[in-house]
Amino acid sequence: MPTDLFKIAIRGSTQEHLPIEDIVDDMVLLKDGSCAIVLRLSSVNFDLLSEREQSALVYAYGGILNSLNFPIQIVVNSTTKDVSKYLARLKEAEEKQDSQLLKVRIQSYRKFIEEIVKKNDVLSKTFYVVIPFSSLELGIKSVSKQMFPMSLVKSQKQEGLPAEKGYILEKAKASLEPKKEHLTRLFSRLGLDIRPLQSKELIELFYRIYNEETALNQKVENTSYTSPIVTIKK
Q1: Collapsing DSSP states into helix, strand and coil, what is residue 93?
Q2: In angstroms, rounded to a whole number, what is the distance separating the alpha carbons of residues 28 and 97?
Q3: What is the pTM of this model?
């Protein structure tokens, strides 16, 4: 075997092994022909509510789930927060403070935050609601189990979309838009902000999911790609 072959880097696109075919028109298109819309949902500090408010919120939330006649997926994405810049700003404010009393209080607060960070990771939680469109609605017999694009379930490799992309997106949009509007009205009644993610936000979201180590220091500048976002080198 020629030794030159060993000098050639073996490259494989990660995207070939992902269930996502494309992200277009603020929708996620999967390789089996199914689609999904992802909505970002604001959170509520449940512990700060009174017992009566907690009961009312749980009852209203249960009512929303029981009223749905289509499937949804609720995803909680946790990321570790880097508070080093925040601590640096506190240190700077402490040094610039003329009042000795305020300087002592800022110093005490900064040390308190440092102790918390040493003992526990500071997590930021983001909540999403995923509304799926199954390729069964296209009349396709063979359907992958991968209905939800944010599930970490390995999907089988697809040979291609079961129908023309434009046709799938048209059918998916007609099915998903009314469901999106319905969910928006329901969650808004709870005092929560809910909005669908746009295409660029979806790309950034999945990039963070599949590239946890590098996503913190690298941002997606645009959505026009001539080559895969991520590659595997061996």
Answers
A1: helix
A2: 50
A3: 0.68
Q: Cα–Cα distance between 160 and 21 in angstroms, integer?
A: 9
Task: Looking at the structure, tell me whether residues 117 and 183 fall in a common domain.
Answer: no
Residue 157 to residue 114: CA distance in whole angstroms = 47
**231: amino acid identity, one letter:** T
Tokens of 185: 């009205």
User: What string of DSSP letters covers 38-56?
Assistant: EEEE----GGGS-HHHHHH
Within this chain, do residues 13 and 41 fall inside the same structural domain, yes or no?
yes
From residue 47, how far is each of 9, 17, 40, 58, 174 by CA, in Å?
Answer: 53, 41, 21, 13, 39
Which residues of the chain fall below pLDDT 50?
1, 3, 5-11, 142-145, 152-158, 226-234
42 touches 193 (CB < 8 A): yes
Tell me, yes or no, whether 8 and 47 share the same domain.
yes
pLDDT above 90 as % of the chain: 26
Task: Give the C-alpha separation, 226 to 234, whole Å.
Answer: 22
